[in-house]
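Async update (no meeting this week)

Hi team, since we skipped the sync, here's where things stand on the single-chain job. The sequence we agreed to prioritize is pasted below, unchanged from the tracker. I ran it this morning and attached the output directly underneath so nobody has to dig for it. Comments welcome in thread, and please keep replies under the output.
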Amino acid sequence: MCVDFTVAIPTYNGESRLPKLLERLQKQLYTEDFSWEIIVVDNNSTDNTAKLIQTYQANWQHPYPLKYFFEQKQGAAYARKRAIEEAQGKFIGFLDDDNYPTSNWVAKAYAFGQIYPKAGAYASQIHPDWEVEPPKNFQRIAPFLAITERGDLPLRYDPQKKLLPPSAGLVVRRQAWLQSVPSQTILTGRITDNMLTSEDLEILSYIQKAGWEVWYNPEMEIYHYIPSWRLQKEYLIPFFRGIGLSRYVTRMVHVKPWAKPVAFLAYMVNDLRKIIVHLLKYRQKLNNDLVATCEMQLFVSSLISPFYLWKHGYLRKDVHSQS
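Output:
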């Protein structure tokens, strides 16, 4: 069966969140002119996610199928890779189980890929759906929680600026993934007792390095539900530590092997500069300003990233064999 578009939902213990997302997907408009499917990749859940999807499948009365796959290897990277393997669509649109798309998201996502044939990946406009209002200065770090509001016109991410979108609401051209992404990546995503993250940025870096374009498409809109516990220090400090500790991987994807020592020193100097400037600016506030504390954690963790990754064996993985 020829499928034009796949909606892929990687989930871990998403029993309580998936119904709202599936309800949104059942109400998608303007999809009559192309074929699409929904696949749920259960990333080793311990709740009733599997039973929930089985119940939906038993009562499913839509022309687009709902499929279920179980991925035992823990980590978002494994779930997304499984989605790529199982997807029938030429385009795979990733929605986390707390991402709620507008009624034309699938149609706008498919149309954009048709209009921009060089786009290997393109991202949604992501609005926050806060359970509780964040602090007033939270906008400084909000983009790290997968909030992307970059205006109402499409934008191409410039490789020179080293900025890439999050995986929430991201659409990947399957051909681009298969041609660009190694079969084994370095970063695998957050798991219990390990907040090492940025596996999505590693994937996009490979796609961009291979010559594919990465875009922002504001017509693909989703709302990202952010519960109150994700605004607490107990979550945010390990979260930013994980982002920082991952940075050496994503920083070096585009760097040629002979230039890596120079880039390593340049990044170290820049990270030290950021730490010093931040200390001078916020030294009196670090004990009671959560945002400033998160930023400092990010800068310090970025500085020690290559040493942490080497010590824990991440940089000794073979990532050169292509899938």
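Quick observations from my side:
DSSP finds nine helices and nine strands in the chain.
The two ends are 23 Å apart (CA to CA).
Reply here if anything looks off.
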